Amino acid sequence: MQCRGTGKAEDDLPCAACQDTGLVPVFKQPTIPSGPPPGSSKRRRFSRYYTDLPITVRDRLERESVGRCVIIAEGGLAAIFPEPIPAGSVVTVRLPIPNHPAILEPMAVVRNQTGLRHGLEFVSLTDSDRMAIRRFCQGPSIQSDS
User: Of 27, 43, 58, 127, which one has the fewest beta carbons inside 10 Å?
Assistant: First the structure.
């Protein structure tokens, strides 16, 4: 269980995500250049933002992997997991967003995997979940229990 604004985890130690402040870091500077990559005419649909959130994914065989979400966007995220998850895997994501009352649980596809870093694309994000991610990406958010 994350602090969700209290600055404490279940064991009463300072929460690793907020360092006892009730705040979770989000950096406004996108992680990608504003233009398309060299040699490409494609632009990203959503800006990406650095963060540090706990994440759990579960595959279709009910295997779980716990990691850290390091980049988030309205269309997906990048996360570090202790074991590789093959590209193409469909997973259920469990991701607490500090300004959202419920834990997000969308389906996602692992689009790429390099070492322990994984890129996931959301395939079943509700409008409410998308708005929670958008608000979270607008800047540091104070977490609340409600």
Answer: 127
Query: How do residues 45-92 score in pLDDT, each as one tens digit?
Result: 788 889 999 999 999 999 999 999 999 999 999 999 999 999 999 999
CA-to-CA distance for 141 and 134, rounded, in angstroms? 11
Strand intervals (E) in 3-146: 23-24, 26-30, 49-59, 64-73, 76-80, 90-94, 107-114, 117-122, 141-142
Kind of pairing between the strands at 76-80 and 49-59: unpaired
Rounded CA separation 139/120 (Å): 22
Q: Which two tokens stand for residue 31?
A: 């992680």
Domains and CATH numbers, the chain: 25-36+43-142 (2.40.10.220)
